[in-house]
Write a structure and sequence with these properties.
Layout: H1 11-54, E1 61-62, E2 65-72, E3 83-90, E4 93-101, H2 109-125, H3 129-151, E5 168-175, E6 180-186, E7 192-195, E8 198-201, E9 223-227, E10 233-237, H4 239-242, H5 254-261, H6 269-284, E11 292-299
Antiparallel strand pairs: 1-2, 2-11, 3-4, 4-5, 5-6, 6-9, 7-8, 7-10, 10-11
Helix pairs in contact: 2-3, 5-6
């Protein structure tokens, strides 16, 4: 309005005036766009760092076990979602958790943090695997109460409150020094035992209900699932693998994919992981509808002790996450 050219009525003046406003407007739009992109990159960088601390990368070897793990969030822009896993060597044996929080994306991160934080402390303190699971149950209940008060203060502890419907499926495993495997399963998909050309479900007792909706039974005992001998592996996964569908609605053929992957010997956790994710992404067209997490552990111990019961105490220094 203050431009002298804008006060003239000639065609040339109008063209020049329009060009000036167009240039200024384009410059402002580009400046705002660059600022927004810088802010978005910074937010993603901070979120990625926080998520890496929460679901930290696992070292390739833990107490004689080769480890390979990966996860994929169904939400674009999120590195992790509602799936969780951790492997920790303790004086009681190597203890593993694989879990799946109801829902996916950034909204499930707080629940993942509560469960993983409790697990990382409890595995060192609790003598029995059942004690670890009870600690996870208490941590989840406390988290959901606090979340309900924060998100729905008027609902209080009303069972109809949306937070009261949250739950987590959890699989706890303990691999002792002699290779004996013990498990507690709260509504999670059963793992597979992988051998030379062999794929079989890891059998055990009937699974318990997921953590959250129902209390754990008063009597809680880990189930013995046999021995993981050298060169055998365990394949753990979340239901995002089993439930993945292609464009025709067909489920992902996980057992067949594993059977094909173990034909190559020696069995490599990284090769199995790569084969499963490659075929899964091809099956879903690169867009899985749910979060996906896979964890593979192979027994690389040269000698399997013959003693039964709890493993002998040993000192383990964990590798740092990348």
């Amino acid at each position: 309005m203050t431009c002298p050219l804008a006060q003239r009525d000639g065609l040339e003046a109008r063209i020049v005036t329009s060009a000036v406003f167009f240039a200024v407007g384009t410059g402002l739009i580009l400046h705002v766009r660059r600022a927004l992109l810088r802010e978005l990159r910074q937010i993603r960088k901070v979120a990625g760092a926080a998520q890496s601390v929460l679901l930290r990368p696992l070292p390739p070897r833990i107490d004689g076990l080769s480890v390979a793990a990966a996860q994929l969030s169904a939400d674009r822009g999120a590195n992790i979602g509602g799936d969780l896993y951790e492997v920790i060597a303790t004086e009681h044996g190597v203890r593993i958790v694989m879990g799946d929080v109801r829902g996916h994306g950034l909204g499930a991160l707080a629940t993942v943090a509560a469960v993983l934080g409790s697990f990382r402390e409890a595995v060192h303190d609790e003598l029995e695997l059942a004690g670890v699971l009870r600690r996870l149950e208490r941590a989840l209940a406390r988290h959901l109460r606090e979340r309900a008060r924060a998100e729905h203060p008027s609902a209080g502890l009303d069972p109809d409150c949306p937070v009261a419907e949250e739950f987590v499926t959890v699989l706890l495993l303990e691999i002792r020094d002699d290779g004996e495997v013990y498990a507690l399963n709260c509504g999670h998909p059963a793992p597979y035992r992988l051998g030379a050309g062999r794929v079989e479900p890891l059998t055990g007792a009937e699974p318990l209900p997921p953590l959250g909706p129902f209390p754990l039974p008063a009597e809680l005992t880990a189930t013995r699932c046999g021995r993981l001998v050298p060169d055998e592996a365990l394949f753990l996964h979340t239901d995002g693998v089993d439930d993945a569908r292609d464009t025709h609605g067909r489920f992902f053929p996980l057992p067949a994919t594993l059977a094909e992957a173990v034909r190559t010997q020696p069995l490599s956790p990284q090769a199995v992981l790569r084969a499963v994710f490659t075929r899964l992404l091809r099956h879903t067209g690169g867009r899985p509808a749910d979060d996906v997490a896979v964890l593979i552990l192979r027994n690389d111990r040269d000698r399997v002790p013959t003693q039964q019961g709890h493993s002998a105490a040993h000192q383990v220094t964990r590798a740092q996450g990348l």
